Amino acid sequence: MFTRTLLGLITVVVALSAPGGSSDVDWWENAALYQIYPRSFQDSDGDGVGDLQGIASRLAYLKEIGITATWLSPVFASPMSDFGYDISDFKAIDPVFGTLDDFDEMIAKAKALGIKIILDFVPNHSSDECEWFEKSVNRQDGYDDFYVWHDGKLNEQTGAREPPSNWVSVFGGPQWTWNEVRQQYFLHQFQVKQPDMNFSSPMVREHLLEVLRFWLDRGVDGFRIDAVPHIFEYRNEDGSYPDEPLSGWSDNPDSYDYHDHVYTKDQPETVQLLYEWREFLEKYQEEHGGDSRVLLAEAYSPVETLSLYFGNGEQRGAQLPMNFQLMYLNGYSTAYDVKNSIDYWMQTMWAQHQTANWVVGNHDTNREADRMGAHKVDLLNVIVNALPGASVTYYGEEIGMANVATECTEISCDGRDGERTPMQWSPTKNAGFSTGSGTWLPVSEDYERYNVQTERGVARSTLQIFKGLQELKKSSAFQAFKTAGGFSYEAVSTHVFQIIRSNQLNEEYRIYVNLGNGIEVLNGLSDKVYEFVLLTSYSPRRLGELIDLRDRLVLMPYEAIVLRWSA
Ligand SMILES: *[C@@H]1O[C@H](CO)[C@@H](O)[C@H](O)[C@H]1NC(C)=O
Ligand SMILES: CC(=O)N[C@H]1CO[C@H](CO)[C@@H](O)[C@@H]1O
Ligand SMILES: [Ca+2]
Ligand SMILES: [Ca+2]
């Protein structure tokens, strides 16, 4: 079994590299993180769009369900062409979300409750309506090089001007767009309205450090860095840009999948930049005190690259390079698939750095209920929260929200709208999200069944199971995850996945998840007697009931259980 061989290795690594000889667990290592999509969390003024006062009014809920820190998708001034991922002023709150005063009040409330606030940091690009871009277009005040500009190439046959390279943007279509005023092409890895900044320019780097300092001074606990792999692009020494090779994955030349992104993703300079930012945060902490400020990195990159983003020898980068592997599971996934997804991370990241985090959703991906099936939401929530390390929950997954079929509206027409609909708080008007006459995206039709108020306190509801899991995360057995033998996981049959958490002393938890639609019978799993401490809705047991694992364990279809043994 892989865990055994790995544990030998871990002991060696710890002995060599534990900083200051201490193996204390920092807050983020085992944290319960929660992503808020601010437009859809809580509307305070009835305009149908979520806002900061709304978030502030719901922080007590995050406390109630055991959340350590929440990260907010962008709330900065923006023309909202990509709903805040196109920032026009990095140091201002967009009026739709409120004011800087609202922001400060939200932070003060969060501090009083002991909840950490992490902001989205979008360094790769700004909005084309950002003052920096306008200055760069007009070559003003030293902003000439602030973005990635190029004259383009002349076609030898036709003499026509063409983009500098064949690069395709993430959302499709060319990455280069001609600017009439400056008479040059500019680069945009995402939308045309999101020009990429030039990170080889010290001025850009300074401006963005200032942005970080601005929000740190207002009390934030860290940043989630957007689109990390896209920050740098490769450029030839003569200033030209090489074409990217075909990937073979797509026949459509306008599709992002058409090329293999060897020159526009995961360039070595990006790793160095993350180390710079981490150093900046550590220095800030030294000067101002308080807990560690964290960096979460959004990077759809191979785990070897993520490992470099985390650190290399003495150099430290993002504490939480986000692990999206479990998002690729679907309704057909077996226990072996689950194990493989986990192995992919553990065999590199855990083996090298003893760190783990598990993301199960975000605003770009269908919800769990749609990827896995509604009857498997609890199963995935159990797995994610029972694994060692930090868990990252997308708002609404803790109550089993599903995607909503949306039509184009005046405000939005984005293929990702379905997973961005209003949070379901209660079985009342607009699910308690807004008192307004309408909401920016429709509220799910099944909100009367899936909402916080209806699920709260109800045994085996998705919310109650989620809360139970957060309680477990605080137990000594779950805290002891860096101790040798503290955890293991395996597929004990095609459909049953097992996780063991132990403090190696007097407490052990066993988690069994049956992903299959049949009854599973397992024999001789352990030589101890356990108590049922957490049950999902398909479970015929009672809490507190005992089970001797020397005998057989019978699991119902889609049943997940947590067992506890104590000496
Ligand atoms: C980025 O800025 C640096 C420093 O100002 C400059 O040397 C370089 O040419 C710029 N790169 C691009 C792509 O504009
Ligand atoms: C998950 C996530 O944050 N995705 C964002 C990545 O960056 C692009 C461009 O900023 C956004 O459009 C995505 O929503
Ligand atoms: Ca509002
Ligand atoms: Ca870039």
Automatic annotation (TrEMBL):
Span of the secretion signal? 1-23
Q: Name one GO molecular function term.
A: alpha-1,4-glucosidase activity
One family from Pfam that matches here is: Alpha-amylase
Say which domain of life the source belongs to.
Eukaryota
Q: What top-level class of enzyme does the UniProt entry assign?
A: hydrolase
Give a yes or no for keyword Ion transport in this entry: no
E.C. number(s) listed in UniProt: 3.2.1.20
Could you tell me the keywords of this UniProt record?
Glycoprotein, Glycosidase, Hydrolase, Signal
Provide the GO biological process annotations: carbohydrate metabolic process
- Catalytic activity annotated for this protein? Hydrolysis of terminal, non-reducing (1->4)-linked alpha-D-glucose residues with release of alpha-D-glucose
Where does the record place the Glycosyl hydrolase family 13 catalytic domain? Answer: 35-456
Checking InterPro entries in the record gives:
GH, GH13_cat_dom, O16G_dom_2
The record's annotation in Gene3D superfamilies points to: Glycosidases (3.20.20.80), Oligo-1,6-glucosidase, Domain 2 (3.90.400.10)
**Family the UniProt entry places it in:** Belongs to the glycosyl hydrolase 13 family.
Protein's UniProt name: alpha-glucosidase
Please name the source species: Drosophila lebanonensis (Fruit fly)
Q: Which gene encodes it?
A: LOC115634514
